[in-house]
Amino acid sequence: MDIFSRGNDALTVNPAVGVTESLSQHGSDWLWAVTALYIVSFIGLLSVCFAVRESDRVFHYILTMALLVGSVTYFAQASDLGWTAIDQAEHLASGASRQIFFAKYINWAISFPSFALSLGLLSGVSWTTIICNIFLSWFWILTYLAAAYTITDYKWGFFAFGTFAWLILAMSTLNESRESASLLGINRDYVLLSGILNLLWILYPIAFALSDGSNLIGVTSSFIFFGVLDVLMGPVLSIIFVLMTRKWDFKKLNVAFSDHRGDRGDLLGLNKEPVPSTNVATSNA
């Protein structure tokens, strides 16, 4: 028996019945390849975590979790799961429907805030700015999800709100956070990482408008577009980020959290050595 005789039967096992615009066989093959890249990157980055001090793993842990979610969501999409058939108002015949993969948005809802958090920690901006950037990334993705599930032209209202949130996020990560990073002496590294991320982020509104927004490109074509962006933002940028951590002083960046936890223990009196007893037993003369 040839163990390689079985091909990709995901679309046979999980067919998109009654959907006009759906994922093709070649599209599923491509998604399996992206899934493999995510899984390999996840395992590789997880392994690297044990080669560094615990207090220096903050970026490793954040990005590892993002890659794990990406692995699961791409597995679902490659298996032709995690989608809903939504009627479309543009560039398809009346009553036609399209596969809208909500698994894709779940991936972004984790990966986008993960990079916003990582850049915030690296730059040294305040926690209020970091929380604001995380909120903006969630708002951006959720409004795009709402737009994808809206069957009328009112979807472009959600798209406008989401794109505006991205503009604020871009200004924060490229301007305010950069100024903070320069005070820590890592301006060059921060500009490189934030520049790559924002270059990729600017392409997501374009990809969405062409695919889930207007149906100008099909499901398979959109996954090629989004897949390339996700691979560059997920596995590739995560690896670049982690490689650059080797030359950073985590204490200077104030992100050596295990060390800080010990400091808090000292403040609370949890790390104090027990005081030896001074009681001396006496005996009657």
UniProtKB/TrEMBL annotation:
The keyword Membrane applies. Keywords: Membrane, Transmembrane, Transmembrane helix. Gene3D superfamilies: Rhodopsin 7-helix transmembrane proteins. GO terms for cellular component: endoplasmic reticulum; plasma membrane. It comes from the Eukaryota. The chain crosses the membrane at residues 30-51, 58-76, 105-123, 130-150, 156-174, 190-211, 223-244. InterPro entries: Arc/bac/fun_rhodopsins (IPR001425), Yro2-like_7TM (IPR043476). It is a multi-pass membrane protein. It is found in: Membrane. The keyword Membrane applies. SUPFAM superfamilies: Family A G protein-coupled receptor-like (SSF81321). Belongs to the archaeal/bacterial/fungal opsin family. This is Protein FDD123. It comes from Talaromyces atroroseus.
